Amino acid sequence: MISAGRVRTWADRTLGRPERVDVAIAALLGGYAFARLYVAGGLPAAVGVLGMTLPVAWRRSRPVTAAAVLAVAAPLNGVLFGPLVRCGTALPAVFLVAYSVGARADRRRYAAAGLLLCLVNVVAQCGYDPLLGLPTVALMAPVLVVFFGCGRLVRRRLAMTEALRRTSVRLREQRERTAQLAVRSERARIAGDLSTSLSSSIERITSAAAAGVAAVDTDAGHTRQLLAAIEQQGRTTLQRMREVLGSWQDDPPGHPQPSLAELAVLLDRATAARTELTVHGTPRTLPAALELSGYRIVEHMLTAMPDAPGAAVAVTVRFDPAALELRVDGPSGAGAEVPLAAARERASLHGGTVDTRVSAGRLLTTARLPLVTSHV
After folding, report:
1. How far apart are CA 122 and CA 260, in angstroms?
2. In this structure, what is the dihedral angle of CA atoms 85, 47, 60, 118, given to the nearest 10 degrees?
3. What count of other Cβ atoms lies within 10 Å of the Cβ of residue 59?
4. Do the Cβ atoms of 97 and 116 come closer than 8 Å?
């Protein structure tokens, strides 16, 4: 016993391709016409009528060619075999081909030529078929045009769909390029922040070393303190380099590095919405690179939200023993991909993550930065 699942599988494999459907329709129309004409007109008439049905098999791949075959076959059958009834299979065939001409012909002149060829077939059928007659052309020609017009409408719809698909692909590629540019820009700014931090640290190391050299012969205890300070400063600088290294910039910025303590100022400057800053846990001094990255991440999160006066934006800073958590809850809008990509790039430098969630028109972004080192 054949199950319904096997029947569906066979149908999907056999009829899943439109070309196979056309072959099946052509075989069905041709077989029926052959059987009828074999009885009414003999074997030659039965073979001849196949020229008026079999072109359906290639109506999708070569519609104008199929119409040309039909235009030749219809009058040729009438001349050779006389008035026989063929409309039961020949008219559906020409209507299907007319639809394919409208839907598949690339150029307008090819489509017009295909329609004209189909019209020749209809006129020949009406002239030679005893059930139709030439006056029936006035009825069949509009029906033919309707099939052709439906094909043109489908073609136009498919063309619009394809254009929208290509536009969507271009927009997606553009968003990806814009996000990449944002990441590069953020890396350049990170490099500038690193350059400023390293310059300050190296200046302190250089000053301590110079003072140690000057005091080496006069004050051994002070010299040891200076050398210890140099060691500590060197370790701190090395740690900062490991946290931020990845991009470089030759020109250092001319302004001091911001920190988490300046988030309130950032909220007043970065958005016109009503803002609320909440701090959980015990605030403590973090490594300068982590402070700067936390500030920049919140800045990117605010940029990802539309600047809507009257809207509410809530910023939460949580100092956990193992991580620094930054959460921004505000209105959602278009264009959030680029600043969020920059925020993720900044968080990845510290092994952190940035998660986003949109719900009821609100965008909730949460950044978590692990605290793997302490700073004194």
Report:
1. 82
2. -40
3. 27
4. no
Rounded to 10°, the helix 220-244/288-303 angle is: 30
Residues ≥6 apart with Cβ < 8 Å to 256: 196
Residue 341 CA neighbour count, 13 Å, CB half: 16
The amino acid occupying position 314 is: A
Per-residue pLDDT tens digits for 6-51 = 545 544 454 456 788 889 998 999 899 899 888 888 899 889 889 9
Rounded CA gap, 163 and 78, in Å?
A: 45
* Pairwise CA distance, residues 126 & 202, whole Å: 98
> What would the two tokens of residue 13 be?
């494999």
pLDDT digits (tens, 9 = 90+) for 57-72: 999 889 999 999 999 9
Amino acid in the structure at residue 335: G
CA 242/CA 273 separation, integer angstroms: 37
Alpha helices (H) in the chain, listed in sequence order: 4-15, 18-41, 43-48, 63-81, 87-104, 108-128, 137-215, 220-244, 263-270, 288-303, 337-348
DSSP state, residue 363: E
Cα of first residue to Cα of last residue in the chain, in angstroms, is 81
pLDDT of residue 356: 93
Task: List, as one string, the DSSP characters of 237-300.
Answer: HHHHHHHHTT---SS--SSPPP-GGGHHHHHHHH-SSEEEEEEES------HHHHHHHHHHHHH
What does the radius of gyration of the chain's CA atoms come to, in whole angstroms? 39
Q: How far apart, in whole angstroms, are the C-alpha atoms of residue 98 and residue 122? A: 11
Order of strands across the sheet that contains 362-370: 274-280, 312-319, 323-331, 362-370, 353-359
Distance CA 253, CA 251 (A): 7
Tokens in use for 163? 């254009």
Q: How far apart are CA 139 and CA 104, in angstroms?
A: 25
Name residue, tokens 């536009």.
167
According to DSSP, the β-strands at 323-331 and 362-370 are antiparallel
